[in-house]
Structures are given as structure tokens and as C-alpha cells.
Design brief:
Blueprint: H1 2-6, H2 9-13, E1 16-23, E2 29-31, H3 33-40, E3 50-57, E4 60-68, E5 82-92, E6 95-105
Parallel strand pairs: 1-6
Antiparallel strand pairs: 1-2, 3-4, 4-5, 5-6
Length: 111
């Protein structure tokens, strides 16, 4: 999250597997570290304020976080900018890396 908060696309992408799949909040499908580094360069995200973490098997983690959309430093996101992120991480030789990321905007269910 520090790399995302800093707008460092390369450092953010380094937390993912080389063949990672990333679905942005605006439905863009990004594959791999190189494409992800370019896509995330200059974006910013606040630290998630709600997180769940579970381990369905010892070397796989599923993280669900709620946070605000990428914003410039110091900017405040509007209330409708919140999203839910689901991430899957895998552990390989002692290192945890994200392999899948899905970001979905939170919206009101139609009445």
C-alpha cells in the first residue's frame, strides 16, 4: 500500500507476480508487472480502512479491503468513490506476492 500511496507504479507492480491479473475500478484488465507498473504510475490510494484476511490453504491468502479511489496527495475522495478490492496472494519461497486484484466501486442497490 505504501507504493500505491506514493504513486510509485514500479514499486506497486513489484508486489505482484510477473503474470498477475489486475482489474481496475473502471473495468480495465491489466496483465503482468510491466503493464501494471505503467497503469499505476502516478495514481494514489489511501490506506484501506476495512480489511479481512483469510488463508484457504497455507500458501494462498485472500484479502478484502475497502478504500477510496486513487486520488492526488492531499485530495479528499467524495463519498461515492469508495470501492472494495479483492486480492489473492501466493507465497513462493517465503515471499508473498499478489497474483489477482479486482477493484469494484461500491454503489447503492437500486430501490
Amino acid at each position: 500500500m505504501e507504493a500505491w500511496a506514493a504513486g510509485d507504479g514500479t514499486a506497486f507492480a513489484a508486489t505482484f507476480t510477473p503474470d498477475a491479473d489486475f482489474v481496475s475500478v473502471i473495468w480495465e484488465f491489466i496483465q503482468g508487472r510491466t503493464e501494471l507498473a505503467g497503469f499505476m504510475r502516478g495514481t494514489h490510494m489511501a490506506e484501506p480502512d476495512t480489511t479481512t484476511l483469510r488463508f484457504p490453504v497455507p500458501n494462498v491468502a485472500v484479502l478484502v479491503a475497502v478504500g477510496d479511489r486513487p486520488m492526488p496527495p492531499g485530495a479528499t475522495a467524495p463519498p461515492d468513490a469508495r470501492s472494495v478490492q479483492t486480492r489473492v496472494a501466493v507465497r513462493h519461497t517465503g515471499t508473498w506476492l499478489f497474483t489477482t486484484f479486482q477493484n469494484t466501486r461500491i454503489s447503492q442497490f437500486p430501490q
